[in-house]
Amino acid sequence: MLNKFLSLVGAAAMATALSMPAAQAKETINVGICVSWPGYAMLEVARQKNLIPDYDLNLTIFEDPLGGHSALAAGQIDVYGCTADYIPLTVDSGTDVVNVAFMNPSYGVDHIIMAPDVEPADLPGKKVSAPQAYIGHLLMGLWLDSQGIAPDQVEWVNLNADEAVGPMLSGDLSAAYMYEPWITKVLEAMPGARSVVNTADPAMLKTGIFMDSMFMNKGFIEKNRKAAAAVLKARWDGLGYWHDHTEETNQLIADYLKWPAEDVGFVIGTNGKSFEGGIYMYDFDESARVCGVLDGEPPFGLANGSMADVVSLTNDWWIKLGLMNNKIDAAKGIDCSLMGDLVASGYRQSFTAN
Which residues are 306's β-sheet partners? Predict the structure, then answer.
């Protein structure tokens, strides 16, 4: 994964910049979204609802996490929403990228499904599947470790959830990483198959690993700190609008992503906070506490200021899973100063489910 990441970053740095709209009266901030996913859509809410009036937001959905990271590293976009598990790779590759905020943890989206008549003790020497270098790989690794099984004791098969259904039903796999609708398809077709862990389990939530986050290009922060703070604030202003107008905003997000509105609700919920089996949306205060710039404890057992610890743990697991060689300085991958600026300005946001 690291070689692919580095090669893509290098290619992006030499490529022609992404096509951008003609100059407008207001300054444009270029925002990338790694995949079509409701949790990344709150800046589109801010754009449509004019919650960042001094800037134009130009949003691009990449459907390619590595491609988006390459564009961010090359300065072709300024801001990027994607999973936090990339932070150690950005540090190891020396790119001009930092994580500025954790946005939301997975709250039960991701599962490990065990085949019928298979127990954890049976897994050494057996095939297990997960998409290499993504959240499922980490979830499988952590769960195996909780059962006393080292990564090299199983035979890994690099499959995403949809690709694992056939091999699971045929009996070729003993365990597989999955999310809906594939979980339901397998459980209905295989009596005795069951979910053995998911990202809503307290032990997994407490790791902080299964997190979506906001990245920024360092040059963007250095050259235009005012805009960087404005777009960070706008993300949480968009979230606040969603909390106060949940049904309307879910439809807005559905129209933007071209999803059914019901499916949006099955990810971010209809109560303006979370959906168990989907994701949990950090309000600003919760995210600021993970950054360590606001007093108080974050949710789910994370410590105040634990962002660097989460990055370090992720780094440890990429090494255990054979995808990285180097132990990095986790602090180099994060920058909580923008969150701190907003806290110092008096910005606060705290809400529960409606």
Answer: none
